Structures are given as structure tokens and as C-alpha cells.
# Entry
Amino acid sequence: MSCQGKVALVTGGGVGIGEATCRSLAAAGAIVVVTDIDEASGSRVAEAINAEGKSAIFMRLDVCDEPQWQAVIAQVIERYGRLQILINNAGIANICGIEDETLAGWRKTNTINSDAVFIGTREAIRVMKETGGSIVNISSIEGIVGDPMLPAYNASKGAVRAFTKSVALYCADKNYGIRVNSVHPGYVTTPLVSGALARLAQIDAEAFAQRVVANIPMGRMAEPAEIAKGIVFLASDDASYMTGSELIMDGGYTAR
Amino acid sequence: MSKELAVFGLEGKVAVVTGAGAGIGEACARLFAKAGAAVVLGDINVEACERIAAELNGQGLQAKAVRLDVTSEDDWAALKQTLVSWKNRWDVLLNNAGIYIGGMLENNTSAQVGKINQINIESVFLGTRAAVDCMKPGACFANGGSIINLSSIAGLIGVPGHSIYGATKGAVRSLTKHSAVEFAKFGYGVRVNSLHPGLIETAMGDQALQDFVDIGVVANVDEAAALLKSAMIPMGRLGNVQDIANAALFLASDASTYVTGIELTVDGGFCAA
# Structure
């Protein structure tokens, strides 16, 4: 499972699945560009990777900012001359029934989770088509099945799933040598999940968490490192015949 | 190897591959052995397995050939005894053995359906039962495990000439999900996933190409391959056995500890369109 010498950019790399993915990619030999809107967490991850004798650099990136995407990718090319792996991971979640969801809240979720994946994928393809590469978009099981309390999140992750297939076909048609796949984690012990629960009243949060875990056949949430391994598999040449595919890692949630 | 990378391998594990004498099964057995597993190669063609096992053992890897008719309960029982005496362990089962029978549905016979169902579906049931009977808590090995069932994209979508074959692969997909959920719910520590290759360059792949000729879709196999590559497979090439073996290794290894009941499609983008 090697990504030896490949230059990889991860969005939302400061915490959760993004952090674990940065660490796993570095362990597999990649040069990791850790990006995050939060400088403190992102630099901490890059420093920790470098301290282990592996290679990483932090660059601040607000994934909704189109000019910033262009600047960051230009910096990556200037520094390393190539970008071969992109992990569109940054995202947010808000637990809220449709009757209480605001248009502003809907737009925020869809901008960060979906629009940003469009911008990042487009910008990456513009440079990646020179070398070939692998783009991994982090959707969710909530891009496949519905949850009554996640209308905006469901919509944004479903968009990522279908968008991934479109871009996979486009890159294949153009013979760019770029593979594009989506990853669908179930519930993972990350700040995204704990943060969303923390914004609920305690009694609601407990009920939500209980319902979720009761619906996971494996009976537990995932650790971020478990999801990172699947992302590294798709990023690596071991997945060379995979494009437009979905990799679900959910402890059996969607199989039931 | 770092601990981080070791989880992508199979060091210390015992893997059984059915239909290991050729094609995808052979490639998976070779890769699993290279990844550190002690591999039992099972096939009705035991001579082929013996040749491959000898080659692997010659490379300092661990392999053993057994005669395994996957439709025979007796052969599965004998396999268990082999595992007890060899390494006293069983971690991975790749239910790969299978056959292809094509033809237009109106020309398929009940005898054909009975035969393909037995070899492609009943075998997966027997193998899964044998494995879980060894892997679950309180069983002889009780170390949990990973079962990978070879389905096909023909178990997901419709293709002319593939009705009875595709039906078996749809059954394998479904059997996978039910057993995965059951084993997870009951805390068996046994993961079960299905793998869905597109058209792969193997003897069975050649049969499928020939079938497109036989049912009159194309004039010859070259035209069949060209049509697939140009119009149906976005990546523009048929798959190879290594593509599938790499994905099987991911599902077999501890890199996929939270993965159960899924369909992993490895098809060059075929089903994305």
C-alpha cells in the first residue's frame, strides 16, 4: 500500500478523519500538504508528521474560497512540481429537522460540503492531468441513506456521491489518468460528530447517539484511523482499476 | 514495516482461497502469500494448486494445496481438519470459485440453472458456514475473520447473455449482506463483503466475450473487447487479475476493520455511468 513520493493534499486535515488520513498517507510515503481553515490544528498535524521523520507541510485553506484554492495549489506546484492525490475531506454537520432548518444553515452546509468539493476537484484536475492521480471525495453513509435529522447534510453528501461519478467519467473520457472515487464513512468518533451532538440539548443528544449506535450492526462507532486506511487504499495505485466507485466503511450500517 | 503499514498486510494470518488454480483466485492466493499469510489454495484442479504452492514455498512463502470441490460438504469438513493440523488458525476466506454459463435466457435450461446455482451460490453458503463455524467466539479457532465473496458487476446491473450467471452473483451480493449483518449483530468478529469485478482478462472473461458473439451482439471476440473498451468501460481497458487481488487484500486485511456488508466495485468505472 504505497504512496511513496506522491504529493497529497488533504482538506480539513487538522482533526478527525482528515488528521488520521494525513498521518496514514505520510506513513505510506506521501509528501502531505495538510490544509485546514484552523491554523493551530493543521500546523500541529504537519509538525507531528515531520517529527516522525516523514514529510508534511501546513497551508491554510478555507475550502469555500476559490482564489485561495488557486493560490494553495500554485504554491504546491511551485514547491513540489506536482499534485497526485487530493482528499476532499473538509465538512460540517448540523443535526436539525427540516422544519427548523434555515436557508442560511442549508446553504452553509452545502457550500462547505458540496460546493467546496467542486472547486477543489476542478482546481486539482487542472494540474493533476499532467501526471495522473487520484481524487478521493469524502461523502458519507448519509449520501446513500437518509436520516430524519440531517436534511442538509444528506443533500450535500448525496451531491458529492453523484458529482464523484460525473468527474470520474470525465477524467476517464479525457484519458487524464485521474481516478475519482467517493468514501462513505458511517459514524466516526470525530469532532464533527461530537460537535454536532454538543449543539443539541443533552437529552436529544443522548437519544440521537443511542439511535445511531443501535443501528450499527458492529455496535460501535469507527475510529478515524480505520477510515483513513480505506482512503489511503483508494489514493494508492492498488486501486488502479477503481474509478467512480463508492467505498463504504460503516460497520454494516447501510447493509441492514 | 511500520505498524501503520503492517495493517495492510496479512502477517501471521491464515487464508483460504477457493478456485485458486487459475485466474483471479490464483492472483489472490499469490498476493495473500506475498503479504505474509499462510495460504491454503483450494480447487478441483489440485494439480494447478500444487504447482503454484510449490512455487510460493520455493520463494520462502507459506502455501498449501488441497483438493476442494466447493459444492462438497465433505471437502469443507476435510479443509477444517487441514487447517487444524497446519497452523491451527483461520482468518480469511475468499469464496472465489465459480463458473460462467451464458446464452439467451430463452435458451437456458433448468439443468444449467441448477448447476450454476450450486457452484456459484451454494458453495458460498457452505464456505461461509464452514468459516464462521471455526471463527466465531467459542469455536475451534475463535479469532474472528474476514470473508470475501466474489460477486460481479453482473450482480448489480443487467447485461445481455448474463441472466442466469448474473442471478447467482446477485444472490452472492445478498447473501453477503445478510451474513455480514447477522455476524456483526451477534458479535462474531467476522466481516463479510462482496467484491464486484468488471470484465477481467481471464479464461472466464474470454468465455463472456465469446458469449457476446454467440448471442449475436458482435461478430467476433475482438469486436466484443473493442466495444467494451470504447463504449462501456470508461477507463478504456479490461481489468486484470492484479486489480482484483489488490482490492481483495484490502478487504482481507486489518486495513478494513470497520468494513462489513459492503459491495466493492472494481470495474474501471463501468457502473458509474
